[in-house]
Write a structure and sequence with these properties.
The structure is a single chain. By secondary structure, the chain is mainly alpha-helical. The protein has one domain. Helices cover 76% and strands 0% of the residues. It contains 6 helices and no strands. The longest helix is centred in the last third of the chain and has 29 residues. The radius of gyration is 17 Å and the shape is elongated. The two termini are 18 Å apart.
């Protein structure tokens, strides 16, 4: 159970930190690194739209991180959150990173995030399997 609790806490902190890093006030200074040749002018429609997208993405990560931290208190009661986080890691994480690389974005940061998502997914599944072996728990509580 300790491994599952640790997974919730560490993953929650990772998502909170990622969420903070995508806040527009933090990341606007690095737009040219995130999107080479970005042609949006400060205050223009493209830049404003990108900042709005960054805020929504940031809030998404912050909410997920906060729920993971809350769920760490009773990880078995919050098992659907584990599977949601794993599904998001596969789709919004790995699949999206592969898509971004295929679109021509710099591969190095995305490869780093693919490794991060894969580690979160693998650790979550292994932690769940360990608890399941110890307790005979099902996929989710009834």
């Amino acid at each position: 159970m300790k491994s599952l609790t640790r997974w919730y806490r560490v993953t929650g902190v990772v998502y909170v930190l990622l969420g903070l890093s995508w806040l527009p006030v933090v990341t606007m200074a690095t737009v040219s690194q995130k999107i080479p040749d970005f042609d949006g002018t400060p205050g223009g429609t493209a830049m404003t739209g990108f900042a709005d997208w960054m805020l929504v993405f940031s809030l998404d990560l912050l909410v997920l991180g906060a729920f993971l931290l809350v769920g760490s208190r009773r990880p078995m009661a919050w098992l659907p959150l584990l599977w949601l986080t794993i599904a998001l890691g596969v789709v919004r994480g790995i699949a999206d990173d592969v898509y971004m690389i295929a679109r021509g974005y710099p591969p190095l940061p995305f490869l780093g995030f693919i490794i991060l998502h894969a580690a979160i997914i693998a650790w979550g599944v292994l932690a769940w399997r360990g608890v399941r072996r110890q307790t005979g728990a099902r996929l989710s509580p009834r």
